[in-house]
Design a protein that fits this description.
By secondary structure, the chain is of the alpha+beta class. It has a single domain, classed as YbaK protein, CATH 3.90.960. It is 29% helix and 29% strand. It is built from seven helices and ten strands.
């Protein structure tokens, strides 16, 4: 079941959302396969340490976080990936690695890749490996007020797909 803190927060803020239940998955690609949502349509949360402070980087599930781009965009001295052991205690109500990208619930800064900010909706783990939350991106933005940056790199398969289709962005929902 989705994190009660998340549901309460969305309900209190009068956000229309949908919970999507699915079998347990541990990657955006696997989640996309069982929910029929392309990996690029699922926002994944990557925990980072920026100049010693934990933060959330939120990127399309089909992409990789570019630590150098994040460091440069923030003018930070040091940006590192956090291990699950380093952050698991910060999310006691979530399955390890399935935290929603709402740092406001956990007193964390949130940085979102600009590609996600251009979408009508955002879909993300709702605190478990078997449930997603879907809501309007504008509601996510209003609640979280993330800093929008260009911090994700395309995967090789994404570049090939783009070359074949001859277009940049395609709708995922």
């Amino acid at each position: 079941m989705a994190v009660q803190r998340l549901i309460k927060f969305l309900d209190q803020n009068k956000v229309h959302y949908t919970l999507i239940s699915h079998s347990d998955t541990y990657t955006a690609a696997a989640t996309g396969a069982v929910t029929h949502i392309p990996g690029r349509g699922i926002a994944k949360t990557v925990m980072v340490r920026i100049n010693g402070r934990p933060a959330m980087a939120v990127i399309p599930g089909s992409r990789h976080l570019n630590l150098n781009a994040l460091r440069k965009a923030l003018g930070a001295k040091d940006v590192q990936l956090m291990t699950e052991q380093e952050f698991v205690d910060a999310f006691p109500d979530c399955d390890p690695g399935a935290m929603p990208p709402l740092g406001v619930l956990y007193q964390l800064d949130v940085y979102v890749d600009e590609r996600l900010s251009r979408e009508a909706e955002i879909v993300f783990n709702a605190g478990s490996h078997h449930e997603l939350a879907r809501l309007a991106y504008k509601d996510f933005d209003r609640l979280q007020r993330p800093k929008i940056l260009r911090i994700a790199s395309q995967t090789v398969s994404e570049r090939l797909e783009e070359d074949r289709s001859g277009s940049g962005l395609q709708p995922f929902l």
